[in-house]
Known about the structure:
Helices cover 34% and strands 20% of the residues. The protein is an alpha/beta fold.
Amino acid sequence: xxxxxAAPLVTPPKLVATDLDGTLFRSDGTLSRRTRAALAxxxxxxxxxxxxTGRPPRGVPDLLERVGPHTVIAANGAxxxxxxxxxxxxFPLPAAEATRLVEHVRAAIPGVSFAVEFDGAFGHEPAYPxxxxxxxxxxxxxxxxxxxxxxxxxxxxxxxxxxxxLPLDAFYERxxxxxxxxxxxxxxTGLSLVEFSAPGVTKATTLVTWSGRLGIGAHEIAAFxxxxxxxxxxxxxxxxxxxxxxHPDVLAAARHRAPSNDEDGVAQVLEGFVDTVTRRASLxx
Length: 285
């Protein structure tokens, strides 16, 4: 069934969860003034905003400077950051399980290379592509097994894998099969990167757990996404929105469709939520 066009909900959500790349951010990586203002307006109207992303914890401070002070669930659910950027919770991969995961995937898919995200640090193998982390200075370079060595005191939050030749869909299926129950396996960039988190840790599980502590049920949440790593999130909430530019699997799964990221689609829907809250307040006053 095709998603229905975006429309104001009869009852606005108590919380909005939104992915970033391809969803909140435009295709050129920028955030519009309209979208930043819509996020602030939602918070002002009593609708909590949570940024839910596959981006690593080390990027959260810069992210909050760009977007504004909101709760962030980073690394596909492996870390929760308060609006001031401090780490509230992490859900790491146990070191032994992470090493076993790397060994299984490496054996099953010759030519694969790995990178590892920690809380505030990043390491990669020499063959891992530099375009995925840009000009950042990286101190941890070696085999994944060396980077994950027991006793390092750095629990891994996410492992990334790259293959220089396999198409993404084929690479993902082989990696998922090799990882088995040792990890949550997903992909989000459209490039040949596959991502692994601790078993049971997804954007959805972390969001639902965190919001439940605030007394907000999953049915009171609206979520926005565009890529397969957003599917658990969209399936766990009361109102799910696929961006018009979303992956076909996301378009098929979400209940509603928002305009594209380049049309400030999230902002358009949020403005409708805020209008409904404001109108109700004026009627009750």
